[in-house]
Amino acid sequence: MSSTTPDTTHGEHRHHVQQATLIGDTIRVYEWGFYISLALIVVGIIVGFVRGETMPDSLGSPGHVYREFIHGHADGIVGVGVLVMILTPLVGVLALAVNFFRARDRQFGLLTTLIVLILIGSVAFSYI
Amino acid sequence: MDIDYSLALAGAAFVASILGSMLGLGGGVFIVPLFTLYLGVDPKIAVGASAIAVVTNSVVGSRRHLSNGFVNVRLATMMEVTTAIGAIAGAAVAIAINADFLKALLGVLLVYAAFSMMRNRKVVHPNVPEDEPDPLGLMASFDDPSTGQVVRYIPRNLRIGISVSTLAGVMSGLLGIGGGVIKGPLMNLVMKMPVKAAAGTSSFMVGMTALATAAVFYADGKIDPQVAVPAMLGTFVGSSYGSHLTKRIHTERLVILFFVILTYLGISMLLSAFGITIGG
Q1: Distances from the Cα of A124 to the Cα of A113, B36, B60, B107, angstroms
Q2: Which residue among A48, A78, A89 sits closest to B59, beta carbon to beta carbon?
Q3: Is the pLDDT of residue A19 over 60?
Q4: Does the complex come out with an ipTM higher than 0.90?
Q5: This prediction's pTM
Q6: Average pLDDT value over all residues in chain A
Q7: B254 and B245 Cβ atoms separated by less than 8 Å
Q8: Model confidence over B166-205: pLDDT tens digits?
Q9: Is B138 helix (H, G, I), strand (E, B) or coil?
Q10: A96–B215: do the CB atoms touch at under 8 Å?
């Protein structure tokens, strides 16, 4: 097993430091994902009320959401907010994979990369 | 958008995420029954909205669980590979099958969760020694704020854990729940993990699993912003508030309260699948 493998030889403190190094970026991604998503949804709802725009009964394709967002329409702004939230765990896991590799923990780096690929695949293949 | 209806959806998601975050179940297990039984949402739209709310709940909750050291990221990584594949398969099936079957399945799962939580409520695992062999490097520890003690554990029975977690992924895809209702008790009872580590690790995994589910429903046009957005907003507030509330309530009373709620919702869902409606 890798050098980051914890308590059995290196003690509690070292383990906590290693764990914090591994997950620090993931925590930051989750925090930013949360704030950006919440801000976009609240702004989208306000824009909708001010302009009297109604929400559709389906978000639409990513391309449609992007076009609506660029034109400043409420459904586009809300849609991007929803997509940011959906994609936040994906980016968080990607950050975890990078940190496993940085810590020279190849085995778990590869496993985490596999999860990222499965999740990207689930998004991509949904459109086929 | 009807404001009263949106507020009712957000309120239901708020209550669901408070209840869910208190025991690390995620809110999805409550959102689908509340939306379909009491607010007249189509089950497949409810499952899609629930998947989004579960991702939200996981993102909000995992920030805290990761910071507190409650998430065993190595274990989550090992278990999530097959769980995510299960979720994709489940979601693909869910879009094609009968909605009443989905309701009946969730009803059975809720009743199961109620009984497993009752059984779970007094289980405490002793700390493992620091020098215990740990070939996969899965040993983890955290400072328990409620006792001030360091809790150290090694997850056991990995094969059973990974197999059942894959099934939880399928259930997540089928029902829009995160699967925490299966993974939490699994990790605590079978894999011998402390409750907080089980809840934290499960909560972290649930976000990835529900992401796969949400993506499939999104691509199929089953994410209705008029339902999903109020669900997200209710969850934003509820999951934050729920974790604070948990500290003030006696755990065993909480479990008994949940037993009653889950059993009631489970039986309601089962009856609803056969065309019998109770309590609204």
Answers
A1: 16, 29, 26, 32
A2: A89
A3: yes
A4: no
A5: 0.83
A6: 85
A7: no
A8: 988 888 888 777 777 788 778 887 898 888 888 889 889 9
A9: coil
A10: no
